[in-house]
UniProtKB/TrEMBL annotation:
Pfam families the record matches: MFS_1
Membrane topology of the entry: Multi-pass membrane protein
Listed name of the protein: MFS transporter
Keyword check for Membrane: yes
Organism, as annotated: Nonomuraea spiralis
Keywords assigned by UniProt, alphabetized: Cell membrane, Membrane, Transmembrane, Transmembrane helix
Length: 407
């Protein structure tokens, strides 16, 4: 694999750390600013909304410049947002810093996915995407627990300064290692928008929302589920989340490896297995060992869907993958928000802390149904749809997926 993928993985590590570390530092931040925990929770909500909005917005703004230049600008925005959070004198400014940092998130992973896939041979593209996303999964194993520990021991502002430093390291790595490929003539926003005329792109994004939503329906409420149902202590939750992160790491690598060989079978296996594990989690949550194993499997199966789903979007977007890839990253966060809301509804309805697992199982099963439907449609119409071709180009002019257009 090209060394440039390491630079992208470092950037992904920093982004993953800043996204999730906030959950472990909410009490300290709320105490410093004199706000309630629910109010401090807006730092999580604001970040997620920023990702959903920023993914298409920042990618659209970057259609006139090279991908490398845009990646550098995004990492600069990420560094600025984290420094603003670290130095924020009030809660409103802190929230603003979180939103600034989040604007870089979706576009970085979307554009980075395209750049990573472009660096390798066609049969290694999903593996290259998985290598970049390894930074995100390692963040949950190392970055988030370490950042939480530092924030609690030294001060949460120190954590955000260190995350900003990580961003600078990623920025230097991208500047040094990622090849600068000129953007060809004709790469414009209107061309990128043509990808959304392909129903397969929209189906892949819907799979992303539902499949990843299944993961976060359960994981969002893992703390009360493990302490109130499984009988773990509050201190043990951190290590259970590390176990979840290890599952994410391994699932991401396996998903990337096997998606390059058989993409749709990989999706069927991961989504089907995820639905089953989440359904059983309502029972296994009552036993400590079984609950820990379930958490690991939810992370592994959930993240095994990431490389194939991202590659599926790139494949189906044909010659206009960048915006579609970034919007699909926003779809992951939309799934997170949707699942957290639905999980909260069933808990509030008095169905118990294991009820979100049923919600997750249903979401994952729905994603599996969409995957089967998508494959059936593809078998009936294997050729590229004229609607997905850029305006002014004859049918068949698009390169066979996933041969991507350089910027």
């Amino acid at each position: 694999m090209p060394l440039a993928l390491l630079a992208l993985a470092i950037g992904a590590f920093g982004i993953g750390t800043t996204e999730f570390v906030i959950m472990g530092l909410l009490p300290e931040i709320a105490g410093d600013y004199g706000v309630s925990i629910p109010t401090a929770g807006l730092l999580v909500t604001g970040y997620a909304i920023g990702v959903v909005i920023g993914a298409p917005l920042m990618t659209a703004l970057g259609t006139r410049i090279s991908r490398k230049t845009m990646l550098l600008l995004l990492m600069g925005l990420f560094v600025a947002g984290n420094l603003l959070s670290a130095l924020a004198p009030g809660f409103g400014v802190m929230l603003g810093g979180r939103i600034v940092a989040s604007l870089a998130h979706g576009a970085f992973f979307g554009i980075g996915s395209v750049a990573a896939a472009d660096m390798v041979a066609p049969h290694k593209k999903a593996g290259a995407i998985a290598t970049m996303f390894t930074g995100l999964t390692v963040a949950n194993v190392v970055g988030v627990p370490l950042g939480t520990f530092i924030g609690q021991a030294v001060g949460w502002r120190t954590t955000f300064v260190l995350v900003a430093v990580l961003g600078l390291v990623g920025l230097v790595g991208i500047a040094t290692l990622v090849p600068a490929v000129p953007r060809p003539e004709g790469t414009r926003l209107r061309r990128e928008l043509t990808a959304f005329r392909n129903p397969q792109v929209l189906l892949a994004m819907a799979m992303t929302v539902l499949g990843f939503g299944g993961v976060f329906a359960a994981i969002t409420y893992i703390a009360p589920m493990m302490t109130q149902v499984a009988g773990y202590s509050a201190d043990a939750v951190t290590w259970l989340l590390v176990l979840f992160g290890v599952g994410m790491f391994l699932g991401n690598l396996l998903g990337g490896r096997f998606a390059d060989r058989a993409l749709m079978p990989m999706l069927y296996t991961a989504l089907g297995g995820l639905a089953v594990v989440l359904a059983l989690f309502t029972l296994t949550a009552h036993n400590k060992v079984a609950a820990a194993a379930s958490i690991f499997l939810v992370g592994a199966l959930g993240f095994a869907t990431v490389p194939p789903l991202q590659k599926r979007v790139l494949d189906q977007a044909h010659g206009a993958p960048t915006l579609a890839s970034a919007v699909n990253i926003g779809a992951f966060n939309l799934g997170n928000a949707l699942a957290a809301w639905l999980g909260g509804l069933v808990i509030a309805a008095g169905l118990g802390f294991t009820a979100p697992n049923w919600v997750g199982a249903l979401l994952a099963a729905a994603a599996l149904v969409l995957a089967v439907w998508s494959a059936a449609l593809e078998r009936r119409a294997p050729a590229s749809e004229p609607a997905s071709e850029p305006a002014g180009e004859p049918a068949g002019a698009a390169l066979p997926a996933p041969a991507l257009v350089h910027d």
